[in-house]
Amino acid sequence: ERRVRWARVMNNEYERLCECLALGEPSLLGSYAASAPAEFFAVATELFFERPLELARAHAALYSELQQLYRVDPLHWVDSSPLLNPKVNSDAYPAQRPEPDACPLRP
Fold this sequence. Notes:
It contains five helices and no strands. Helix 2 packs across helix 3 and helix 3 (52-58) packs across helix 4. By secondary structure, the chain is mostly helical.
């Protein structure tokens, strides 16, 4: 069941990305991720660790699959990061809220 869900989510997200880019819509994942499924996985992994809040908001199912794969939740790191959580020393770091993925398509 886990492998079936993984394949379904990854394929749906990859297809969604390709459709968005074909329509000229911007995507958090970017055009390089659409060049091949392996690149999609690599870009998604980078976003998972480097921009977890944005990925979780824009691609919740993808985030969940990566969370289970890596057995870690980078969103827990957000709570203690002044760059990602404006409540932590907000005077030193301006709050920036990422927008959800602009692509209107749904998987």
